Amino acid sequence: MKKIIIINGPNLNLLGKREPNIYGSLTFTEFLDELKVKYPIANIDYFQSNIEGELIDKLHEVGFSYDGVILNAGAYTHTSIGIGDAIKGIETPVVEVHISNTFGREEFRHQSYISPNAKGVILGFGLQSYELALESFLKS
After folding, report:
1. pLDDT digits (tens, 9 = 90+) for 33-63
2. How far is Cα 100 from Cα 11, in angstroms, rounded to an integer?
3. Which of 3, 59, 123, 130 could bond 86 through an S-S bridge, CB–CB 3.0 to 4.6 Å?
4. Residues 70, 75, 78, CA angle at the centre, nearest 5°?
5. Which of 23, 66, 113, 130 is catalytic?
6. Is 23 an active-site residue?
7. Rounded to two decimals, what is the model's pTM?
């Protein structure tokens, strides 16, 4: 059984409440429960923090023992050299995900400090972006 962790960054704890026209009305907990039922062949853990250093600490913690990291660093994607460096320093592959198409939004969201160090990037498919990332780990 593959061990995968989903790590969400700032404001993603507000899914289901925050800008439902962009992010939908499902909470992440509801979505995660559905994902675990749909993919019983994976051990899926979850971590969310609004604090950059906690995200880096979690990457360091899981980065040598998990089979994959699905990371939505939220706004830190566009600002955090530290998270990018953390990904570069670990062995576990990371897939960067975004619920919205960041290239269809404000220009500052077009830059990612995560992408150069990620196995791949999936964006714009709503919560399905996480499922696509999970499938990429289960098929490899």
Report:
1. 999 999 999 999 999 999 999 999 999 999 9
2. 14
3. 59
4. 90
5. 23
6. yes
7. 0.93
